[in-house]
Amino acid sequence: MTVQLSDHFTYQKLFRFCMPSIIMMVFTSIYGVVDGLFISNYVGKIPFAAINLVMPVLMILGGFGFMIGTGGSALVAKTLGEGESGRANRYFTMMVYLTVALGVLLSVIGFASIRPVSYMLGATEAMIEDCVVYSRVILVFNAAFMLQNVFQAFFTAAEKPKLGLAATVAAGITNMALDALFIAGFQWGVAGAALATGISQCVGGILPLVYFARPNHSLLQLVKTSVECDILLKACGNGSSELMSNISGSLVSIVYNFQLLKFAGENGVAAYGVLMYVQFIFIAVFIGYTIGTSPVVSYHYGAGNHSELKNLLKKSYWITGIAGIAMMLLSQGLSPALAGIFVGYDRELFDLTVHAFRLFAFSFLLAGANIFTSSFFTALSNGGISAAVSFLRTLVFQLISVLVLPAFFELDGIWWAITVAEILAFAVSMAFLFANRKRYHYMD
Questions:
Q1: d(CA 78, CA 379)
Q2: Within a 13 Å sphere around the CA of 166, how many CA atoms are in the beta-carbon half?
């Protein structure tokens, strides 16, 4: 039985509707992790540190796709909830056009500036060429990467999350197979890893484009439309929290790398890279859940169904809370195994990574609630509050923590920083939620 946006959502329906998006995001994260796994084990820890150094910049550029996808899908789903399918399709088409144009522009800018940017990030002479080669190959495919991020959100709004999952699985299998071929087989190093990722992004971004360009059985299809700048600005403004979260996370990663180079050298950057890869997978569960629930929230908000907003909010906090506890326990228990997969060849680096894991793991307890709160306000078309939560959580609180805590706890202060930031962000999230309860009627 098909689950529709207009349904009343029980826990069972929530899991059924969101699971494809969750698996889709986890799979996306896993095949990104495979790059690091192959590079660390087949190319070495210096190239591994190099790609982790430039990864934040590449994520910022690709993050514009998340902005368009989350903000645009919320607007489109709300329009569908208002019964305006024709207008929703025009909005959807504009978002796709904007993604392609912006993707090409950002690729050109990034390609020209990546060498000086890498030096600014602290790249050593041993790292610089790997930084530049990996980045430039990835940037060739930036528009496809952005489209992949956009369609991950719109497949859910189109009531076709399983198709989104299929596209992501196809992209992931492509990436993992090509990583093995290009890195382990052909020994193309970081260039091979980047090429494998880029080709897989074409699978995840171009195939959905073909699907929506043709007649289909979903709620959305690409149609003829003129450009309405006010709609594009509204969508981008509404999705700005996701972009802010992406940019903030990337900027914080840069500061982390600076601090780690100071306290632990290149080993510290490599250890942090392992933590980020595992975090990508765990946080992807929460992001996938919000991708699944956001169109539902937007639809019922557009339809004026306040009781369903209350239902979705309550169930979502239970789900993210229990998932956070499970992730913390898994991180604690599996830290030696996970560290061994990436850096088992270097005992000093392995010990550093395991220790970091066990401190870092506590951040998962509240991460899901904070991510959902930001997404919830995006779905309610309140990009301001959503951006504030993301901005404070991923930038302000983390920057303060990672700069201040090492002064008291040295290297351990860096590993504790994200947990302190999540605690502060949770307090802010609850304050915003309580303050706006009467405006949106999601609480008694």
A1: 8
A2: 8
- Residues 83, 108: Cα–Cα separation, whole Å: 40
- Strand, helix or coil at 429? helix
> What's the CA gap between 110 and 244, in Å, rounded?
19
CA dihedral 180, 284, 145, 36 (to 10 degrees): -30
Which residues contact residue 392 at a Cβ distance below 8 angstroms, ignoring those fewer than 6 apart?
Answer: 424, 425, 428
Nearest alpha carbon to residue 4 among 211, 220, 168, 160: 160
Token pair, residue 403, equals 């700069």
pLDDT tens for 135-174 read: 999 999 999 999 998 998 898 888 887 888 888 889 888 9
* Type of residue at 12: Q
Distance CA 162, CA 155 (A): 8
CA pair distance 354, 91, nearest whole angstrom: 47
Model pTM score: 0.71
Alpha-carbon span 225 to 222, nearest angstrom: 9
| 3-class SS of residue 141 | coil
N-to-C CA span, the chain: 32
76-133 pLDDT, tens per residue?
988 988 888 999 999 999 999 999 999 999 999 999 999 999 998 888 888 899 999 9
Residue with tokens 């904007």: 98
- C-beta of residue 367 within 8 angstroms of C-beta of residue 324: yes
